[in-house]
Task: structure prediction
Amino acid sequence: MKKILIGAVCAVALSGILAAEDSGVFVGVSYQGGQASLNEKYDGLVKMNGTSIPNQDIHEKYNKNPMMNGAGIKLGYKQFFGNSKWFGLRYYAFLDYGYANFGKIIPDLDSSPDNPTYKSYYTHMLSYGVGIDTLWNFINKDNASFGIFAGIGVGADTWIANGKDFQEKFFPKGKVGYVNFQATIDAGLRTNLYKHHGFEVGVKVPLLQDKIFNDKDDTIPTEVPIITADMSNTTKVQRNYSVYVSYLYTF
Result:
């Protein structure tokens, strides 16, 4: 009887080891939905040259928080430790794409000054870099495992926005910031089936705002020769968060 019990325990332990998730190279794709934010600030001084009319300060802000939709790809290596393989790490490179529309806030240069119209301000975002996640498997069954993950990433964001004609006319000295350093944290639930197929639901949170346009003390042309306007503009955007669903294949 004693030998039977010892044999049964060994068989259970061995089956757990055999069923444990393996290390390997993986590639993944994801759908991502979340929120973006726009913080645009205008500061300036309007001067009535040659008149007794006092100068006028201008301070305007735009804050928008539309939804952002996109997708992502990920390529890397996951590594599990020990015989039980309940804990592991994965190292990867990633590329995310997102699209956001901040609404009709750009003046249409072709519209009449007496009846101005506005165009939508939209942007395409590319976020890229490298990351590392901790992997925790709480369940290891035959051909299936289930657990959680959490990690960090570092890289950069590139935002490609419209409205270049407006910026060139009214803020010709402005500088566009195409590359902004970014750091992210992410966490979620994961499962791996039949060695090769992984599914995840997670949340990614970027930590930094991106300054995509900056202009200081630029002289804006006006329709009245005696009026001049010295303006400054700062535009910052951020992907506030993204909730994603991923499929990963391990080779």
Summary: The mean pLDDT is 85. The helical segments are 2-19, 164-170.
